Amino acid sequence: MSPDSGARPGGLRRSLKGALAAAILALIVAGCGIAASTAVPAPTAPPSPAPLLSGAVTVTATQVDAALRAVGLSSTVSPVPFRPGESPTLAAAQRLVLKVTLPDDEAGAFIVVYDFKDAQTAYDAGREMAAYLASGPGRVQFANDARAVIRQAGSTIVFFSWSPATAKDPRTSSVATALETVGVDVPVVR
Q: Domain residues for 37?
């Protein structure tokens, strides 16, 4: 634009900014549903493959269920997702979640069996989890009165936590007692 055309240079910039803002607003509105399709495409494959667990997990799960049956309880593979607060190594590990049937607690209790390549790796992961539970980030993941059980059974780690103050079934403590017969203890100091 020439200075003698009568238009102000700032006016052109404002016009371009206004047009750009209107175009961006139109795109945002179109993406928010006014022009969006309501059809949801069907997934072509599962979001992730099912984990491949070692035979050690099956052995440990069988030991856990036998220990629970000895105190009048039982477990099944959990039909619902469950993920407790975990140390980094446990968070990255393959796992099997068991749900304990508690007569007075419809939600039940959950035990996680973590799968590792060997006993030393499992031992290290269990110790890391014990240290995590004593740390600030670990403490905020659980109730103040939470009690945790960490057991190593070969190349697996068994983890269970519960809170006496919030337990809906008095037999919840029996889960912890039963787990004391599986594998070896990884001490938790809070």
A: 9-42
